[in-house]
Amino acid sequence: MLRIATFALTLFLFGQAAAPALADQPRPWGLWMQEAASPTMQQIESLNITITVIILIVLAVVFALLGYIIFRFRASRNPQPAKFEHNTPLEFLWTMIPVLILVAIAFPSFHLLYAMDRVKDADLTLKVTGHQWYWSYAYPDQNVSFDANMVQDGDLKPGEPRLLAADAHVVLPVGAVVRIQTTADDVVHSWSIPALGVKIDAFPGRLNETWVRIDRPGMYYGQCSQLCGINHGFMPIQIEAVPKDQFTTWVQQNQTKKQSSSDGGPVLADARQERN
Ligand SMILES: [Cu+2]
After folding, report:
1. CATH 2.60.40.420, applies to 124-254
2. CA distance 260 to 169
3. pLDDT digits (tens, 9 = 90+) for 1-49
4. Distance 166 CA to ligand 1 centre (A)
5. Whole-angstrom Cα distance, residue 196 to residue 219?
6. How far is the CA of 215 from the centre of ligand 1 (A)?
7. Residue ranges of domains in the chain
8. Which residues pair with 239 in a beta bridge?
9. Which of 18, 40, 84, 110 would bridge 197 by S-S if both were Cys, CB 3.0 to 4.6 A apart?
């Protein structure tokens, strides 16, 4: 029964999203969620469907009961109302049934929370730092780092979504397990990309960790999801998932050039080395 209902609901909801996926970004009049592109998002989606089905069943039962009571015990049909106030078995039941439903929901949801939390063997690390109001990214092992600001309306190229495109975007290899560490420079931000099922707060003075594995190439868009100040809505996240060899080329092109000792003088060069 639950399976059939789940299937029907999935058909209905995904029917709405059947339009060809151009990029993983919000669409006008879009319903439901963006198409999942990571195992985490797939699990979030299936948990969401399961819980929605449970909610619908609860709703149907409550409304049916309510309708029955309104009809069966209406004043004209039931002129002498019963006078009792307590019914211990009934009270026990209407307490225990919701408790059991909540416990049943808690198991898969905790399972998912732990699965999202951290990963033992990551292929690479991406460090994300939130600033008022832009993101900066670092690939500590690849020696790549850059800032990403929103593209202003006047500078948008054709196909770039307004308020979602960034002047520099994160590039990640498809299929690789990426450890994501987030922190912030000033206030709390949140790095979230709906299609990847990633949403993690970035706190000043603290390093949060999660992970992602992107299963198909594409451009993914997200936004800062903690109210962080006046330009909170203008610090988008743009991620491109590319095949592994393309990622390697990108890393080589974007590696920070080794500072030569001639620029900045010996004092600065020494200080820089100590920092590193
Ligand atoms: Cu922010």
Report:
1. yes
2. 27
3. 555 555 555 555 554 444 444 568 888 888 888 899 999 999 999 999 9
4. 14
5. 11
6. 27
7. 2-16+33-77+86-117, 124-254
8. 170, 220
9. 40
